[in-house]
Every structure is written in C-alpha cells, then in structure tokens.
Design goal:
This protein is an alpha/beta fold. The protein has three domains: about 230 residues, Aminohydrolase, N-terminal nucleophile (Ntn) domain (Glutamine Phosphoribosylpyrophosphate, subunit 1, domain 1), CATH 3.60.20; about 190 residues, 3-Layer(aba) Sandwich (Rossmann fold); about 140 residues, Glucose-6-phosphate isomerase like protein, domain 1 (Rossmann fold). About 35% of the residues lie in helices and about 25% in strands. It has 18 helices and 25 strands. The chain has an eight-stranded antiparallel sheet with strand order 3-2-4-1-10-9-11-15, with helices on one face. The protein has a seven-stranded antiparallel sheet with strand order 5-6-7-8-12-13-14. It has a five-stranded parallel sheet with strand order 17-16-18-19-20, sandwiched between helices. The chain is globular, with a radius of gyration of 25 Å. The termini are close together. Bound molecules: 2-deoxy-2-amino glucitol-6-phosphate. 2-deoxy-2-amino glucitol-6-phosphate binds next to α9.
C-alpha cells in the first residue's frame, strides 16, 4: 500500500520518477506526487487520482533536477484528495517527505508537540516533528523523531538545507536502494528499478540511509553500518501482449507453472523440516487463503491436524504451538501486514510460500519456498494463485516420494487458455447484480476464489456457498435476478450437482455449470483430480476479467483496493 520511489544521479529525475511510480501503481492509485530539488528550491507537484493525472500536470511544469522523491498513495488517513497526497512538508517547507505505512499515534504527537497541520494525513506530523527537533544534523533529527513514532514507515526525505541528499528510514514497510554506475534509485519494490540496476540493498527495520550522488551511507540506531548487496534472480521473460496486466498474467499461467516447478528443485531440503511435526497451521489472506484451503487437502495424508486460518483472525486467536508445530504462511507479495503480524506470534517452525524474493515474509519466517510466477501487478491475483496450488501439490509429491505429473497440466492449461472464448457468456453474466458460486469439496474452494475474483473487479455482489448447504438458508436469496455458477469436476458428484441445478431453476434462478463433462456450459478438459483445481480456476479468472472490461472498468486497478496490503 503506497509506493515510494526516489532518484539521485545526473539524469533528469522527473521522467524516472514517473516511470517508477507507474511501476509501483499496483500499490495504490488514489493520488500521486513528486518533489524535486531544483535550483529554485524543492518543487512539489501532486494530483488526486492515478499517476496519469500527475503526468498530465507535469507536462506543464518545468521542474528540472536530478534529486527527487515520489509517491503513489492508497489512502488510509483522509480523503484521496490532492491536499492529502504526498509529498508532505512542515509548515516552513524545510522538510519534504513521502511515507508508506501508518503512524498510529499521530494525533497524540500532534497535540503533544502542538503541531499545526494542513492535511488530514498521518504523515504530515513526521515532517513537522523533524523540523522542530533541536539536533543540528539531519540524520540525528530523523533518528530522534522515529523514536517517537508508533506504527510502520518507509520514509524518503529531502531537507531544504541539504537538497542534494535523500534520507531514508524504515520500519515494517519495505524499502530498497538500487545502484548502477551513475544512478541511485529508491523504491518500495526493487522490481521498479530492475531495468537500471543489477545490485540492490534492502533496508532492515530501524535502519537509515543518507544518499547523495554516487554515495550511499547506511546507519542503524547507533552507528554507520556496512550492508551487503543483493542480486536479482534470473527471471523468465514473460510475454505481455494485451491491453491489461490481468489479461497478460492469466495468459502467463502455463509458463509461471513451468518456472515454478523447475525452481522447486531448489527447495527439496524442506522435506526435513516436516519431520516430526505435530500439527500444521496454514495462514494467509484473500486469494492466498484460498490456496491454503487446497494446501490442507494436499497435505491431509500426513495424518496430523491441519488448520487453515485467515491471517487477520489468526492474530487474535489462541493456538497451541509446540516446537514441532509448523505454520505455513502464503503470500504472493510477501508484504501483507496481516500475514506478517501472525508470523511474529508463532514460536514454532515457520515456512513462507511467496512469489517475491527478499520480501518481508522471507525475513520473518525460518524457511521459504519461492514461487516463480513472475511479477504480478494486477490487483486480482491469478497466476500466483495457480502457482501456490502447484507448490502445495509439489510439496505433497515430495513428502510422499511421488513423481509429480505436471507436463500434462502445463500443456493442457496452455491449450485450454488458447481455446477459451467466454465473451458471450461474459455479456450474460454482466447483466446480473447477484452471482452465486457453488460447488462441493474442491469445487467449493474454487467457487470461493471465483466469487472473490468476480466481485473484486466487476463490483457484482458475489458469494460462494457449498452446493449442499444452499437448501439450509441461502436458497432463499435465489430468484430470477440471481445467476448461479455451479462448479462440478468430480465424477461421483455429477448427479447430485444436477439435482442442485434443478432445485435452483425451480426457484427461477439461472444456473450455469462449469464442469468436465459433456453438457457443461463451460467445459473443462479431463485432468487428474489432484491437478484439476489448478485448471478449473482459469475460466473463472478469464470470465471475471471479461465481465469487468465489458462493464467499462479497469481490471488492474479496482476501486478501493491495493495489490500489496501493508497495513493491518
Ligand atoms: C486477490 O485477488 C486479492 N487482491 C487479495 O485477496 C490478495 O490475495 C490478498 O490481499 C493477499 O495478498 P498476498 O498474497 O500478497 O499476501
């Protein structure tokens, strides 16, 4: 949530900052702004709305300079207005900063230090506090202020008395520094400067940096420190050929599966970590939580109790951890605050399954399995979900000493995606205000994920219900304005599912079947039951995307959401 970008070098900062913000826009798109050190002082331009709005505004602005900071916002405190957009300053404009995170005690600090503010944001008080600190040195001022802050922050700051420098501070929210021969980049996500740098640094909690041309100094609370650089992993060049990222990302699924399967070879030692475990908790949010529901099914053969929990609930519940309890945390981004907060309470074995190397969850957990889905930027998670299911399947095979059979899956998913044409169906779905997804067993989990996908980008009211449970209450919602999408991939359940369809239609509801048998409305190919969930979600992702586009929305940037949910 919120993306920070910064540049120090010899080039014009403006286009680089805009490019950086465009790369980070998946983290929030309520407003955007930049601040550049020019020879006439620090100039700030900000706009409500997407980076596109800022870009338009900057066409008319002459702000030349080679040191700058930028921000794309997901609003937490205050409306997504130009006023509340970052960068923020103190009253005298001696401190200009961008912030990702939340300052929980900002009102207390505002009152305690009698700060005058102009915006509704929690960030503005940080600038105000730094400006009134008595220390002479800017780094010391910053260190004194962060001691007062409760919450999370990644900060990039320009001081008017040191306009050639950018200062950084970090706690909980991610912050990376990339270095090439002549340029230094700052970003919430290293992917945003990957094009320019091969090496980068990752700031840890309570670390600081002072950056000026060709020079980066790192500090902890007490002293200057040396930090090691990180290299980007070799990544597969995923194809982009559609208008929207979500379309590309769904189409990239077969390659993502293949890359993930190959890369899994590096994690085979994890087998030892499963020795003697007494129970497993699978914890995540949203789509990643749905993959945990499948994870439980894949790992059930271990004959130990397995619990699946939504991270924001797990945090507040009681659990019996022993040294042999294993908690598995699944997160595409590796930065989801709710999930990371859970890791901290687990005094036991912890394993992260994530798509992002060096993300916060990889540092928080004792072990990590990386997927190789490639950069996922559309807010609705698609290819990463498929890879999460694949990881659980591969784990099952590894622990059971079975040979995974994924060649067919990869071939079939490619052929299937190429042959899918859901445009007519999407037109029909787009006319409904209520859509219910139902299924039994694995298909119920797919129904949950299908419902989440459609609702988050089309704003249609979607729910999921186990087919057999309909008649125990939810059937009361069914009328001629309700569309039910019934998922049916289990041979032994077809007749029961057909009966459910009749019950729905008898109440005036419309029912479409997604299944792997002759009369299904959306046909799935035959595949082993183990791998079917990786395939059966594909048409629901494509359908959601098509409905969204038909309704005139942008699937990559649904309202109110952010790809990386870094606040609890
Ligand atoms: C998926 O389509 C959602 N946008 C969302 O539920 C997401 O899966 C959730 O926020 C968890 O994110 P993570 O995998 O990065 O932790």
């Amino acid at each position: 949530m919120c993306g920070i970008f910064g540049y120090v070098g010899k080039k014009e900062a403006k286009p680089l900052l805009i490019e950086g913000l465009e790369n980070l826009e998946y983290r929030g798109y309520d407003s955007a702004g930049i601040a550049i050190s020019t020879n006439k002082g620090i100039k700030i331009v900000k706009r409500a709305g997407k980076v596109e709005e800022l870009k338009k505004a900057l066409k008319e602005e002459n702000i030349d300079g080679s040191v700058g900071i930028a921000h794309t916002r997901w609003a937490t405190h205050g409306l997504p207005s130009e006023l509340n957009a970052h960068p923020h300053t103190d009253v005298l404009k001696s401190v200009t900063l961008v912030h990702n995170g939340i300052i929980e005690n900002y009102l207390e600090l505002k009152n305690e230090f009698n700060l005058k503010t102009q915006t509704e944001s929690d960030t503005e008080i940080i600038a105000g506090l730094i400006a009134i600190m008595p220390e002479k040195n800017n780094l010391e001022k910053l260190k004194s202020v962060v001691k007062l802050l409760k919450g999370s922050y990644a900060l990039a700051i320009i001081f008017s008395n040191e306009p050639e420098c950018i200062y950084l501070a970090k706690k909980e929210s991610p912050l990376m520094v990339g270095k090439s021969e002549d340029d230094i980049f700052i970003s919430s996500d290293a992917n945003a400067f990957k094009k320019y740098c091969s090496d980068f640094y990752i700031l840890k909690n309570n670390e600081f940096a002072k950056i000026k041309y060709n020079n980066i100094e790192f500090f902890n609370k007490n002293k200057k420190i040396n930090k090691k650089t990180n290299k980007f992993l070799n990544t597969f060049a995923f194809e982009n050929k559609n208008k929207y990222l979500m379309q590309d990302e769904i189409a990239q699924t077969p390659d993502a599966l293949k890359e993930t399967a190959i890369f899994f070879e590096n994690f085979k030692d994890i087998k030892n970590y499963f020795k003697n475990i007494d129970k497993i908790y699978l914890v995540a949010c949203g789509t990643a939580y749905h993959s945990c529901l499948f994870g439980k099914k894949y790992l059930e053969f271990l004959n130990v109790p397995i619990f699946t929990e939504i991270a924001s609930e797990f945090k507040y519940s009681k659990h019996l951890f022993t040294k042999n309890t294993l908690c598995i945390f699944v997160s595409q981004s590796g930065e989801t605050a709710d999930t990371i907060a859970c890791v901290k309470k687990c005094k036991c074995k912890t394993l992260a399954i994530t798509n992002v190397p060096n993300s916060s969850i990889t540092f928080a957990c004792k072990k990590t399995i990386l997927m190789k889905a490639g950069w996922e930027r559309a807010v609705a998670s698609t290819k990463a979900y498929s890879c999460q299911l694949l990881i659980f399947y591969l784990l099952k095979c590894l622990l059971k000493d079975e040979k995974p059979k994924i060649k067919t899956l990869i071939r079939q998913s490619k052929q299937y995606l190429n042959s899918l044409n859901l445009t007519q169906l999407a037109k029909k779905v787009a006319t409904f205000e209520k859509v219910m997804f139902i299924g039994r067993q694995d298909d119920y989990i797919t129904a949950k994920e299908g419902a989440l996908k459609l609702k988050e980008i089309s704003y249609i009211n979607c729910t999921a219900c186990p087919s057999g449970e309909l008649k125990h209450g939810t059937l009361a919602l069914v009328d001629e304005n309700t569309l039910i999408i019934l998922i049916s991939t289990k041979n032994n359940l077809i007749s029961k599912n057909l009966l459910t369809k009749e019950e729905i239609e008898a109440r005036g509801g419309k029912c479409l079947i997604l299944g792997n048998f002759e009369n299904a409305d959306i046909k799935l190919p035959k595949l082993s039951a183990d791998l079917m969930p990786i395939l059966s979600i594909l048409p629901l992702q494509v359908l959601a995307c098509e409905v969204c586009i038909l309704k005139g929305y942008n699937p990559d940037k649904p309202r109110n959401l952010s790809k990386s949910v870094t606040v609890e």
